Amino acid sequence: MTSALKKIVLASNNQGKLAELQAMFAPLGVELVRQGDLHIGEAEEPFHTFVENALAKARHAARESGLPAVADDAGLCVDAFGGLPGVQTAYYATQFGYEKSDDNNVRALLEQMANIDNRRAALVSTLVAVRHPDDPEPLIAVGRAVGEITRAPVGANGFGFDPIMFIPRFGKTFAELPIDVKNANSHRGQAAQQMLALMRERWFA
């Protein structure tokens, strides 16, 4: 595959997401560039599934940059809420009068679950990569980390819902785990491992 593929646009402006994915993609020798650093605006995300939104974001970034693109659409699916907030996770706090932010999402979720005993939830990450905007064979990888929502934040690592996502097999929240352990087991880590295997097979073989 051409050397142009060594630079891939990340269809996100989330610094935490960039840092995580750059570390995970390092074995491929690729450089991830945030779309915002290329003055590319965010794509619309009108769909109700992670894969459709990720594909829309990847195609938009590839079209605007002329480079291959990878997009991550991730969210929290809470059993007690019928799988919501799902694709609307990033804007969850705004439903309750808060400004959009990771901290406010955590605050709003803990408030809404204050009297709920079923704490089971899953963090889901869907990664989609395209070689060009009209790529008929996008690469799709899905990771899922199942745990329980704590009653208060615990731990100082990570971002997003990491401080309240308790993973029973570790006996800790994602925010308490060393970064390398979290990256190997998180929803995004699982999806990235699958994506690396797909890229090696389809793009870099």
TrEMBL record:
What's a Gene Ontology MF term here? Answer: ITP diphosphatase activity
Annotated Gene Ontology cellular components are:
cytosol
Q: Which InterPro entries match?
A: dITP/XTP_pyrophosphatase, ITPase-like_fam, RdgB/HAM1
Q: Does the keyword Nucleus apply?
A: no
Primary enzyme class? hydrolase
Which residues are Mg(2+)-binding? Answer: E44, D73
Q: How does it assemble?
A: Homodimer.
Q: What is this protein called?
A: dITP/XTP pyrophosphatase
Per the UniProt record, the source organism is Limnohabitans curvus
Q: What is the lineage of its organism?
A: Bacteria, Pseudomonadati, Pseudomonadota, Betaproteobacteria, Burkholderiales
